[in-house]
Design brief:
The chain has about 300 residues and is α/β, with parallel strands linked by helices. The protein has one domain: Rossmann fold, CATH 3.40.50.12370. The chain has nine helices and eleven strands.
Length: about 300
């Protein structure tokens, strides 16, 4: 397994650092600590950039040394440029299986996820992205809508040892909008709409029950607790409420594509989860295999040779 931990060396990354250090990684896992500096002042003072980059490299080396080795290979690298683009490019170059990033905060703030480096990474990433807000992950809620993206998310939870000991809850939401017309405005349209609404509601209830039932059976062979829940209402509200009620450390959602964040997440359930969740969020998309034929080399990346300084 190859993990790219993207960090800017700030205090906001402390939860992510603690998670990287304490997670149960599979033997042979390769972890690369990757720092990106924006090109601030480069035209005015190249020496200033070089000095700051040197300080940053020292921080990364200290962090690498502090990580428990436990059959891990740890290295680090730096680059100067636009962080989200550089991180995504590096993930492709090393065929990463997971990108780990810190969070700039909690709650529905523009600086927390949307418009931040984390959002840009999620938009461009060729593999799952874990936005960390907790030191440890013991309770995981999988939001399952029966889609291919949700199946990818479930496979990640089932295959990776870093999640093997966690208690899981599979949640599916029945979200069927009621007809807009009222009886007084358009009686015939209202009656027809109500019939369609109740038919759709029943179909969605049955679908949700099948979804959580099937997923729970698939995940149960692992020696861990797995439960299921079906909720009704607005999907975003219900996922966030379910995570709160379950005291989840992590919400896992699937992504439906590889196009722009604005097209996929704007106004969507995933966008709300990313913005408003108070726990860590894993967006499962793609895998290293998707980029094996489209490997991106980044010759300007400065890599620290193996092994790290002891």
């Amino acid at each position: 397994m190859k993990v790219l931990f993207a960090t800017d060396g700030s205090r906001e990354d402390q939860h992510a650092r603690s998670f990287i250090a304490s997670a149960r990684w599979a033997a042979g896992t390769e972890i690369e600590l990757f720092g990106v500096m924006r090109m601030v002042g480069l035209e005015l003072s190249g020496a200033l950039i070089d000095r700051n980059l040197t300080d940053f490299e020292f921080q990364l080396d200290e962090l690498a040394v502090s990580l428990p080795q436990r059959d891990l290979t740890v290295t680090w690298g730096t680059a100067v440029g636009e962080p989200a683009e550089e991180i995504a490019a590096r993930a492709r170059a090393i065929e990463a299986d997971l990108i780990v990033v810190g969070s700039r905060g909690r709650g529905p703030l523009a600086t927390s996820i949307l418009g931040s480096v984390s959002a840009g990474v999620i938009d461009r990433a060729p593999c799952p992205v874990l936005v960390v807000r907790e030191d440890q992950i013991k309770r995981i809620m999988l939001a399952d809508d029966g889609s291919v993206g949700a199946a990818t998310a479930a496979a990640v939870l089932d295959d990776w040892p870093i999640f093997a000991d966690a208690t899981l809850q599979v949640v599916s939401v029945v979200d069927v909008g009621r007809p807009l017309a009222t009886f007084g405005e358009a009686p015939m349209i209202y009656i027809a709409g109500e019939h369609l609404y109740y038919d759709a509601l029943q179909e969605e209830r049955e679908r949700a029950q099948r979804t959580v039932g099937t997923r729970t059976k698939e995940l149960k062979p692992r020696l861990r607790a797995v439960s299921a829940s079906v909720r009704e209402g607005d999907a975003g509200d219900q996922i966030l409420a379910a995570a709160h009620d379950f005291a989840a450390d992590l919400i896992v959602v699937g992504s439906r594509g590889q196009t722009g964040l604005a097209r996929i997440f704007a106004g969507s359930v995933a966008r709300r989860v990313l913005l408003e969740a108070r726990c860590s969020v894993l967006v499962a998309r793609g895998s290293a295999q998707l980029v094996r034929d489209d490997r991106t080399d980044a010759p300007h990346v400065r890599m620290r040779p193996y092994p790290v300084r002891r």
